[in-house]
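Changelog-linked ticket: WT7 example.
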Amino acid sequence: MVDDDNSELEARLPDQDYYRPPPEFVGQANVSDPAIYDRFEDFPEGFEEYAELLEWESRWDEVLDDSNPPFYEWFVDGELNASYNCIDRHLDERKNQTALLWEGEDGEQRNITYQDLYREVNKMAAALEDAGVEEDDVVTLHLPMLPALPITMLACARIGAPHSEVFAGFSAQALADRIDDAGSDVVVTADGYYRRGDLLNHKEKADEACELAEKDVDKVLVWERHEGELHPDAELEEGRDVLVSELLANNERTRVDPVTRDAEDPLFLMYTSGTTGKPKGCQHRTGGYLAYATGTSKYVLDIKPEDTYWCAADIGWITGHTYIVYGPLSLGTTSVMFEGAPDHPHKSRIWEIAEKYDVDIFHTSPTAVRQFMKWGEEYLEGYDFDFRHMTTVGEPIQPEAWNWYYEHIGDSDAVIVDTWWQTETGGHLITNLPALDDMKPGSAGKPAPGIQPAIYDDRGDEIEPASGRAGNLVIERPWPGMLQTVYGDDDRFIDEYWRDFSETDSDDPEDWVYKTGDGAVHAQDGYFRILGRLDDVMNVAGHRLGTMELESAVSEVEEVAEAAVVSRNDPEKGEVPDVYVTLREGVDPGGIEDKIVAAVERDIGKFARPNAIVIVDDLPKTRSGKIMRRLLENISNDDDLGDTTTLRDPSVPERIRDQLQD
Ligand code: WT7
């Protein structure tokens, strides 16, 4: 539901100024002719411009088949291979150019040229085939930020096996759930990686996941963080576990031809949180996704092959898939990746890397910007770098943070684009084109070329464009980067994204409207300002987390009778989860907090740890017994409680508030 009262959000986003892109930027930009917007209004043909950036084995017959909405098909009958497009096609011109610049937390450095990448991806593709992986098998990856991750993704793409990378911070249980859902026979992991100075034993999570999963995993392939030196605590299970280094050494094959994939064949799955406890496997297609990733990398991120481009995200999330791996490599540029934390061994690590590699384009999240801001400008001192272009993604950015980013990181002469999109959308949907549109702090900006967003009220009626009124952000036309379906669950795909605002018994694509789950305002200047999620999904440090997933983890603690999780606004992370619980009759409340934290870490991962755990006598409930999370959210955020007369016991919220103030 749209919150009627957006006054608080309005207050957080005061007067917005515009900033012009610097003329030097405009002069060199990949797109500087506003005619692009008109070209893409020729729908769907406009999107051919993105597809033309790829090399196809056979060209498509039709741009869009929309005869069976919402199961759209893009670049129908086109054939291509994503690994070929990200590697092989660059070899003639730039085989000695660096494709991936990797820096380990311990200072180790790897400079992987396109030729090296070609060699390594071919060998890994052969290794996957040796492990029994066949075309269309989904391979689950649980890899941290090591070169092994993009190499394995591209090796999967080469043999037509969709990859499903599970962010390394996810727990064994979360990995097991995703292995089961994807039905993977083969899992690829690493023995360990560095995080704040420790060489973590990462392999143990895959071991435990294999125990927890219902699926019998045939093979676990293990990359070593230090080749030839397996993590001292990592154990290998005979018959199941194989070191990638051994597979590579024992294989004579150094070439695996890229298989021909239909444009509609899936390229990968990426699981994301929804409003139920079960994560959704967003299934992305090969042709449309790669075209959209490449096109937006070129037009929005302004990437050129000679650039050094750094998206400081983790490849374990969609941002890294699209804007560290597929988009940048498809354009033949140099993409930077790093292991570990931005503040280890010191808080200048990011700027040290920026200077060392002479980074031109820098991509990060508002959470990171707020952190840099909190650490202070002194950590920038003495570092010599010059970004031409910067972006943010993942959450709304407050003008204050935007201004700091612009001034201190961008030296007031870089362009900034605030890019709105989702795991489901494959690439940016609302963002300015950097040379064409003025920057407006706090606003994501205009729709990307060819994209048609709108604001609907809760009844499903369109709110007049540019009205400045808050409502549900929807997308009225399909686009090539969109998910194909929820893996194995077409009904859920329709229920989650389409049912609310579409006429689902119609086969006219005009009647189908994609629900984003976000609230937004379309301002008079045509810019969209994103207000945040309207459903039970939180955005913690730019990562999506479902309330229900957290609640079901908390409810596993035996002593807990009922649990409600709500989001608290946090000056650093955007939102953080607060947990309210009632306990079973007669149990000892001692140590409950630790048990709850342990349950969340076990079921989801450390990154989802609650901010506060509040043990209460009673939760606010309606007369029919429904927990009113909204009131708890008001309590967490110190907001007015509003109308409490519909509660079974109207005194409950005040009692909780008093308890918190004690
Ligand atoms: C949700 C998607 C795809 C990038 C990483 C997150 C929020 C994303 C912005 C932005 C305001 C944003 C939305 C969206 N979001 N970008 N520029 N301004 N909010 O991917 O985990 O799929 O989350 O992140 O709420 O729905 P994700």
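Closing comment: Example verified and attached. The pocket of WT7 is lined by residues 272, 318-319, 393-396, 418-423, 444, 516-518, 530, 532-533, 539, 542-544 (CB under 6 Å). Residues 22-86+260-537 form a domain with the Rossmann fold fold (CATH 3.40.50.12780).
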